[in-house]
Design a protein that fits this description.
Shape: elongated
Helix content: 55-70%
Order of helices and strands: HHHEEHHH
Low-confidence stretches: 155-159
Number of helices: 6
Mean pLDDT: 84
Strand content: 5-15%
Distance between the termini: 38 Å
Strand order of the largest sheet: 1-2
Radius of gyration: 19 Å
Structural class: mainly alpha
Largest sheet: 2 strands, antiparallel
Length: 159
C-alpha cells in the first residue's frame, strides 16, 4: 500500500505558517503555501478548509488575507491534525478477501487485520503526544546545529 503523504505535507505547511506568522505577523496565502508544498493553491484551500472546520486554522479574506494558525503550537497535536484530515492511511488496512472460503487467506487476514489495528492504535496514541511546538523546536535545533546554516534557505515563499 502506498503511504498517504497528506499528514506530512500539511505539517510542513503548518510549520511554514508558524514561522511566517512569527517573522511577519501576516497570514500566508494559499499561493504561498502552494509554493512551499509544490502543489496547486486549490489543493491547499481544500485541505485548509478541513483544518478550519476543526478549529486548527482561520482564514482571512480580502487584501492581506490568508491562513493563520488558530491555536498556539503547543496546543495542536499531530493527532488532531491527522483527525482533521480524515485520518488518512498511514499504515495498511486489513487485507481484502479475495478467495472466498480459503482458510489460509482467512488466517492471514485475521492475523494482519488485528496486527494493523493494534499498530494503528499505537500510532494514533503517539501522534496525540507530539505537538507542533515539538516539531518547531526540533527544526530550530537542527537549523542551529547545521554546519552551513548561514547558507541554508528554508524553502519558503516570498513575503
Amino acid at each position: 500500500m502506498k503511504r498517504d503523504s497528506r499528514l506530512s505535507n500539511i505539517l510542513h505547511a503548518l510549520l511554514h505558517m508558524a514561522e511566517h506568522q512569527t517573522r511577519t505577523g501576516a497570514p500566508m496565502t494559499s499561493d504561498q503555501l502552494a509554493v512551499c508544498l509544490s502543489t496547486n493553491p486549490v489543493v491547499v484551500r481544500r485541505t485548509m478548509a478541513g483544518l478550519r472546520e476543526q478549529g486548527l486554522v482561520v482564514s482571512e479574506k480580502g487584501h492581506g488575507g490568508g491562513w493563520r494558525l488558530a491555536r498556539p503550537l503547543d496546543r495542536v497535536s499531530l493527532g488532531q491534525v491527522n483527525a482533521a484530515l480524515g485520518e488518512p492511511g498511514l499504515i495498511p488496512e486489513a487485507p481484502p478477501v479475495e478467495a472466498e472460503g480459503c482458510l489460509v487467506e482467512a488466517a492471514v487476514n485475521d492475523a494482519l487485520g488485528e496486527t494493523y489495528a493494534a499498530a494503528r492504535a499505537l500510532l494514533v496514541a503517539r501522534l496525540n503526544e507530539i505537538t507542533l511546538a515539538d516539531l518547531a523546536a526540533d527544526f530550530s535545533r537542527r537549523l542551529a546545529e547545521h554546519p552551513n546554516r548561514d547558507l541554508l534557505h528554508v524553502r519558503s515563499p516570498k513575503s
